[in-house]
Write a structure and sequence with these properties.
By secondary structure, the chain is of the alpha/beta class. The chain is 44% helix and 15% strand. It binds 1,3-dihydroxyacetonephosphate (13P).
């Protein structure tokens, strides 16, 4: 199953990093560089307190904001949580659901991730549903089973029309923050598997083929050059390198000029 051609999506996940001063410098640098990026869809994920500020700094620029997380409920007595409608209200376009750090450190189950994706869609946001296996799971041959278990609850709650608005991200846990990028073969194999899983589960072959699937895990300017050449890869979810303006711009250029 080959992917339809869309502009690549390059997302910078800042995780729990940044300050008003640092964010301003980073975003001003990206705004200066954007003319050199080419045909690419760029988004950044500031922490919650900085979202509105970043949206304002990016006004009239094609760079959008993505939230790193959201609440699985729509509104009410959920102290400390942030709803999908609030994220939409302050101008976010995308929201991550099920990043491995949320799953691993904060107990987000696959059912909860499904509820988060549902809330995102209800609020008009595009959910970026993240999946990925640990090294132990890969080594005992459980990669595909793990990814299926993570994704099936989300797929079960979505209509075909919903599916058209979903982005997937494959981030092997062993590749995140380790400097070990998955190989081209590993990435191609998993991305094909994910699109096939969506097609087999929903019967929506065309939607599955068109569904953007990102890769994440130690992406840097060097790996972005070959990642951008992989036809299955719709874009990248960048962590550490997204905090360095030069590196992130370089990654955007690799995907914008492919
Ligand atoms: P690194 O690029 O730092 O490995 O992080 C990847 C990631 O988790 C992006 O969401």
């Amino acid at each position: 199953m080959t992917q339809q051609h869309l502009p690549a999506l390059v997302i910078g996940n800042w995780k729990m990093n940044g300050s008003l001063t640092a964010n301003t410098a980073l975003l001003e640098s990206l705004r200066r560089d954007i003319a050199s990026f080419g045909h690419v869809n760029v988004s950044v994920c500031p922490p919650f307190p900085y979202l509105a500020h970043s949206v304002a700094l990016l006004a009239k620029s094609p760079i959008s904001c993505t939230a790193q997380n959201l609440c699985h409920e729509a509104v009410g007595a959920y102290t400390g949580e942030v709803s999908a409608s609030m994220l939409a209200d302050v101008g976010c376009r995308y929201v991550l659901a099920g990043h491995s750090e949320r799953r691993g450190l904060f107990g987000d189950s696959s059912e909860r991730v499904a509820a988060k994706a549902r809330q995102a869609l209800n609020a008009g946001l595009t959910p970026i549903v993240c999946v990925g296996e640990t090294l132990a799971q890969r080594e005992i041959g459980l990669t595909e089973a793990t990814l299926a278990a993570q994704l099936l609850p989300t797929l079960a709650g979505l209509s075909i029309a919903d599916l058209e608005k979903v982005v997937l991200a494959y981030e092997p846990v062993w590749a995140i923050g380790t400097g070990h990028v998955a190989t081209a073969q590993q990435i191609t194999s998993v991305l094909r598997y994910l699109r096939q899983l969506v097609a087999d589960t929903t019967g929506a072959d065309k939607v599955a083929r068109a569904m953007p699937v990102l890769y994440g895990g130690s992406v840097n300017p060097t790996s972005a050059v070959w990642l951008a050449q992989l036809p299955e890869v719709s874009g990248v979810l960048v962590g550490g390198a997204a905090l360095k303006a030069e590196d992130f711009s370089e990654i955007c250029r690799s995907f914008g000029q492919r």
